[in-house]
Predict the 3D structure of the following.
Amino acid sequence: MRTAIHRIGRSILVLLAFGCAAAQADLTATVDRNAISEFDLVTLSLRLANDPGNVTPDFSVVEKDFTIVSQSGPSRQSQFIFSNGQQMSESHTEWDITLRPKRKGTLTIPPIRVGNQQTQPIEIDVSAASASMTRRMNQYVFFDTSVDTHEAYVQGQIIYTVKLFYVDSISGDFPAPPNLSGAVVETIESEKRYESIVNNRRFYVLEKRYAIYPQQSGELVIPGERFNGARGRGSFFSAQEPVSAGSPAIKIDVKPRPASFTGEHWLPAKSVQLTESIKQDGSTLKVGEPFNRTLRITAEGLASSLLPPFAHLDLPNAKTYQDPPETNDSPMNGGVKSSLSTTIGIVPTEPGTLTLPAIEVPWWNTQTNKMEVARLPPHTFTVEPGNGATVSVPETPTAEKSSRTPLASDKGMPAPNLWMYVAIGFAVLWLITLWLWFSLRRQI
């Protein structure tokens, strides 16, 4: 009897211990190594024991110092263990993420939270790649990065070119466009592939070009490019060899808007041109007949989003209708060529002279570091009366002009002599009526 009670007690204690272990999850984080070079990758593994099944780690905290290259998980596993002759179940969940360091030095993987638990921070020492490693990697893959200028004005254009040289059987992802705070980055050429000979060796080249427009003055740093991939086809007989490549950061001196620029809109560009086209029938204009004027501003080395719209055209003797502007950006050897065009419908309302005023657009020449002005000259047209047009007539016409030809608006009105005959006819009828009335009274 006493033995049976002891067995029941031990079973209760085992069950209580198992329940406590199940209620308290255990979260740990480990890395495959704590010291790496700037070209290496590090694998972070998270293990959560007794996973309740409804939690997800927050890996975004590592992106301050690391780039997440890949992520796998959750992977859940269960196993049975025996303790004191009793069978117990144990389960855990694992996540693995591959990280690339963003810079050299001592970097920290911060605590990662899973549910109401978090891991301990982990330090990673990132050192510069050795010369021998760089040379060895350069045999298979390397970068060539460049900019067209190391000095630019705020909102001015910087052409950033990235070339990745690689031999056959290299796999990996090309770096994403640079992520720069305080600058706008636009892709000029998304992908260009060709071959090149470097040191008597044939390389394949993948080239991309970007237009960078800094939005604030000061120093702009374009971070170095990083590539991590594998060499080889990974067949059954040969494994793939990890390869990496990197490039140095590039610094740009961004100058503010010069005080000598007096224009309303700041336009730093290589060139700015104004053009126009006027579509009309005949050599003269007519009242009430519309014609179109299309204005276009074209710039090299400037984004179309920075081109100013044309001011609304107000004319005292015409009505105007202005269409919304249309913009376009097209790549060229020197960067981006942008344009903005607007079509204006003009309807003359009075005969005489119609003048389209001159247009001036000040801009800053980044080649000569001087302000210039793009201009369109004024245009003057003669406007003739149109069909059905109203023409001003003197209030007291002279005798010579009393026999003028009736206007279209006069059609349907009786002539002056006709009114006289009508009046005489009414007078005769009135006299006849009066005579008949007197005759009838005499008969009565």
Notes: The longest strand covers residues 66-83. The radius of gyration is 43 Å.
